Amino acid sequence: MSPQEPLPDAAPERLAAVQTLAARLLQKSHIYGVYLTTMEFTSVRQGLVVAKLPLEDKHMNSRGGIHGAVSATIIDFVTGLGIASYDLREATGVSLEMNVSYLGTAHAGDTVEVESKVERVGGTIAVVTVTITKIEADGGRSPVTLGRHTKYVKQAKPKDIKDKE
Predict the structure, then answer these.
(1) 3-state class of 89 per DSSP?
(2) Exposed/middle/buried for 81, CB within 10 Å: 0-12, 13-18, 19+?
(3) In this predicted structure, which of 80-84, 88-92, 119-123 has the lowest mean pLDDT?
């Protein structure tokens, strides 16, 4: 991920928690490092992370559309970031279930917007939904992928939240 200016809607501690986790995940996971280094945050609020990812040839399947495995990788990556934005956790648990619905496609040269929305974080389980949409030339959005990711978070303790939004 490239460095960027602070986002106007992100509390500094919340944005820092998300950026720190993203950097650590990109460094420690080869698959994230291959596919997601050009992702940029556009919004970070409690329980919501929005980012953009310009698509390249490496993101494509044999038919020239975004590969389903890339969409699943994006969902896996940003759900943890959503959980970190919710309560500033440094670790965001392990996957229990992931559901992915492929609704459309995007191609190399397109940019997709990725929204990770926390539906619930409890003492043991977190549920996060993700939408991936293609940004059209006119600024409109076309659905590409919907995902839901359930994670076991009991061992990943949240920090005290200092900013209330």
Answers:
(1) coil
(2) buried
(3) 88-92
* The pLDDT of residue 2: 42
Judged against a pLDDT cut of 90, whether residue 159 lies above it is answered with no
pLDDT of the residue at 11: 81
Alpha-carbon gap, residue 61 to 63, rounded angstroms: 5
Its pTM stands at: 0.89
Is residue 43 within 8 Å of 7, Cβ to Cβ? yes
Q: Which two tokens stand for residue 46?
A: 């409690």
Query: Is 154 a residue whose pLDDT tops 90?
Result: no
The dihedral built from the CA positions of residue 31, 14, 120 and 129, taken in this order, carries a sign that is negative
Please give the order of strands across the beta sheet that includes 40-45: 40-45, 48-54, 111-121, 125-135, 141-152, 94-102
Q: What are phi and psi of 144, to 5 degrees?
A: -115, -50
What secondary structure letter does DSSP report for 93?
-
**3-state secondary structure labels for all residues of 106-134:** CCCCCEEEEEEEEEEECCCEEEEEEEEEE
Give the separation between CA 143 and CA 63, rounded to whole angstroms: 18
Identify residue 121 by its one-letter amino acid code.
Answer: V
